[in-house]
Amino acid sequence: MKEAPMHNRVFSVLGLFDSAQHLMDAVPFVKSKASGRLEAYTPYPVHGIEKVIQQRKSPLAGMVFIMGAIGAISGLALELWTSGIDYPLTTAAKPFLSWEAFVPIMFEVTVLFACFTAGLGMLLLLNRLPFFRHPMLRTRSMPLITKNKFALAIEADGQLLDVDATVKVLLEAGAESTEVVAEPEVPGLLSPKFFFRAFLSIAIVCITAGYITYWGIKLFPVSVPMRHMLNQPRLGPQQQSSFFKDGFGMRMPVAGTVARGHLPYAIEDQNDAGVLANPLPRTEEVLKKGRQNFSIFCSVCHGILGDGKTSLTAAYGAKPANLDSQTFRDYEDGKIYHVIVAGKNSMPSYAAELTEDERWSVIHYVRALQRAYDAKDEDIPKENPR
Amino acid sequence: MKPETVPLAERMIPANLQASPITDGPVSLVSLDDQVLAHVDRKPPAAWFLAFAVTSTVMLIGFALIGYTISTGIGVWGNNIPVAWGFDIINFVFWVGIGHAGTLISAILLLFRARWRNAISRFAEAMTIFAVLCAVLFPLIHVGRPWLGFWLMPYPNQRGIWPNFRSPLIWDVFAVSTYFAVSLLFWYLGLVPDLASLRDRTKQKLRKFIYQTLCFGWRGSSSHWRHFEKAYTILAGLATGLVLSVHSVVSFDFAVSLVPGWHMTIFPPYFVVGAIFAGFAMVVLVLSLVRKTMRLENLITMYHLDVMNKVILTCSCLMGYAYLMEGFTAWYSMNDSIHHTFKQYIAGTYAWAGWLTIACNILIPQLLWFKKSRRSYAVMIFVALSVTIGMWLERFVIIVSSLHQDFLVSSWRVYVPTPVDIGILLGTFGLFFTLVLLFARVLPVIATTEMKIVLPGSQPRHEGGSHA
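Output (structure tokens, whole complex):
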């Protein structure tokens, strides 16, 4: 056989039969006489026809089995991992990897995977649908085939088909009528027309979606159907209370009580505070903590080096202390502590911001700053650590 | 039927033992198409519009009440503590159960090669999908914030938590959503060849385009049919396991808990049978109306209704056994709480519901022992209605009667549904029948392709072997 020319190619020759029996009877005869690939078109599945025209068995069952197994394993793995490993959840005193309780969902996932493999695998993979350009769909025999006629097609399958001889064979086999199906001119997938259509449809979809979203939001403002417990009959910070006589929403602690983690600070005069000693060791950890808190709370006014060169604007009237000066170098730790707790001049108390340990760690750091400000030669490390 | 088209083996069977013909009178491939597929092009009669107006009004009232529930809160329902599950779960179980008949007909009977199923499978499958749609509404509303329903699905989230996979409620989510997806797939695959027939019948360009798209360009080649039939059989096998699992999982919602009256091993089979029972009653109810109004008496014959009524009778007897077994379990448990709960079923506040359940589900269906009543419209509609009511009441008894008096005497409370509860229940009936009516207009109500397979003479002879 030689290659057919591109145009006026014949795709197949159809013979129409009036019953499944006649179709079946015709197959062996046509097979022996005509060359080309055989295919039957029937209104409903005719049992046994695939054996007669020797089509291979459907591989669907194997596909379904594999996908079902994957579904079972992934379902079980998901359950074991999520409720046993990623977020171990204790329910009804069951062990974390209680596989028995996971069987129902494992089963459902298996069925889901298997069913969609069977359905969509059949339709999309094995049958290669949707396929709207198939030459059969344009024939005048197609409406008869979906109704009550049984067609036997001899397909050219890329070869040259002897149309007249094939028609004769089909008629001899008992066909009521025949039809020659022309090979359609295959439009190139990458033709300009295709690109234009694709571009146009994407543009239409984008513009429509955009307009719908725009008007949807404009016409129906996003409303919260349920206030998600936002609406609560409690007072927020700084809100006035109509319940208490003094009108404050927040309450003072009961007289004589001490809050957890807080020691009362009884010293009133700064000069008396000198007796307090820094309880923290001078370790790197403490200094780090001190530096952090100093940077957050102190450096705004006292400067990042503690030299009193504030990062505030000139509009700030007060003159923050230069912690590196001799006065403060001579201060005992306790006196600095007192200032942090009680404040001094324009400086407010920082008792609320800093815990006791944090205050003492800041003092360690201030000492480090003081030493660095007035560093001596012996403070420089002898060897370069590098 | 021409004698030579009947296989030899069947000709040797005595006449009274042979399978009844599946159609009344001769039906050819052409007349079948003309009868079934032409409905789609015809303008519906006035009665259809009237029915549609009624059902869609009821449906919209139901939707409005659902809107009221969501915007106001679950407090508009009659639920209380201890009856935290009321109409919502009753209706959920009821509608999921209705769906089961469709899968039984389409899947299990296909595996059993019951040829009579082919005429009713399409309608029953459609009813499955609509019933499951009605069912999933209820848990979704009951969560209170349906827009957060996706939290039920396992997905990585910023909260770092997952659903509790040891909870039967999450099993339910998976079972019902899988059931819905698979039913839809099964139904749609069956529709594909029929849509191709519709495509080739219509002259209108737009309709042709729509049908062509919907049927994926189906062309009925034998290389496609062999995959199609394989897929259909595999799906039937899987759906059989699925349908049995779905109502078992629904019953686990109850059986896995420790509530007396619920904590029983008989629950899964008992629920599955009950589901098929209620579902077949609904199928009989709808099909007896459909065959009359759509003039399909020769395709959905009295034989079909007769067989379905036999299934109903069988299920009724099985339900009777289950009810007796509930009593036996209660007695044999020697447990005061279970004794108490069982006494509530038959002598408590809701004893009327208990006895009505027994009357509707066990006593009235016994009429179907007689062939005359199995083939009488009046009797079968009466029985189907009573089973529908009875099966709904059964769930009412199981849920409300068991819950309203729990272990703690101080918390005992009587449950009374509110008009909103009842309105939403009726609304789902509206939704169901609206969808049924729409389906009957726009799609072929009988699977013509499947019918063609079993029409006499449609398959080639097999010398010396059957094609089982």
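The mean pLDDT of chain B is 91.
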